[in-house]
């Protein structure tokens, strides 16, 4: 008899029960985590590990782009940012440049922090409306 990893079960449950806003936050967190792993791998000359984690960040940003709601004008601005980050990630991966990766991670942190603020304000508005 095989027992599933309780942590993996918890993570899976957390994802399956998350709201779209929470999923977006998780994606930002994941992109930051993989970006930091890539930075460390570049510092340690672990080329394949750096490459794999940069690709993970790219896939998350691709997901952000794919799920933009284009009916809102702000979506075009987000798409410009995401396209810029993808270009920088390609450069970072080609050159294994940790400074470029640090720049990308900093942008992602800023976007994540702004997203948290939006989530907080929406929650406060909903609680105030009740």
Sum up the structure in keywords.
130 residues; Four Helix Bundle (Hemerythrin (Met), subunit A); single chain; 85% helix
Structure description:
With 130 residues, the protein is mainly alpha-helical. The chain has a single domain (20-116), classed as Four Helix Bundle (Hemerythrin (Met), subunit A) (Up-down Bundle), CATH 1.20.120. The protein is 85% helix and 0% strand. The protein contains 5 helices and no strands. α2 runs antiparallel to α3 (47-66). The model has no long low-confidence stretch (mean pLDDT 91).
CATH architecture: Up-down Bundle
Low-pLDDT runs of 5+ residues are none
Any idea of the CATH class?
Answer: Mainly Alpha
Mean pLDDT: 91
Number of structurally distinct domains: 1
* Helix-strand topology string: HHHHH
Main sheet makeup? none
**How many helices?**
5
CATH topology (fold) name: Four Helix Bundle (Hemerythrin (Met), subunit A)
| CATH homologous superfamily identity | Flagellar protein FliS
Shape: globular
In terms of quaternary structure, the protein is single chain
Total beta-strand segments: 0
Measure the end-to-end span.
Answer: 49 Å
Give the helix/strand class.
Answer: mainly alpha
Percent helix, as a range, is over 70%
Q: Please give the radius of gyration in angstroms.
A: 17 Å
Estimated share of beta-strand residues? under 5%
């Amino acid at each position: 008899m095989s027992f599933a990893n309780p942590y993996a079960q918890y993570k899976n449950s957390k994802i399956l029960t998350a709201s779209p806003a929470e999923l977006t936050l998780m994606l930002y967190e994941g992109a930051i985590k993989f970006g930091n792993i890539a930075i460390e791998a570049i510092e340690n000359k672990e080329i394949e590990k750096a490459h794999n984690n940069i690709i993970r960040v790219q896939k998350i940003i691709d997901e952000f782009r794919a799920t933009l709601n284009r009916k809102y004008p702000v979506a075009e601005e987000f798409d410009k940012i995401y396209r810029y980050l993808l270009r920088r990630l390609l450069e970072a991966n080609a050159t294994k440049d940790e400074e470029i990766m640090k720049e990308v991670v900093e942008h992602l942190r800023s976007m994540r922090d702004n997203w948290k603020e939006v989530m907080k304000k929406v929650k406060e508005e909903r609680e105030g409306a009740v």
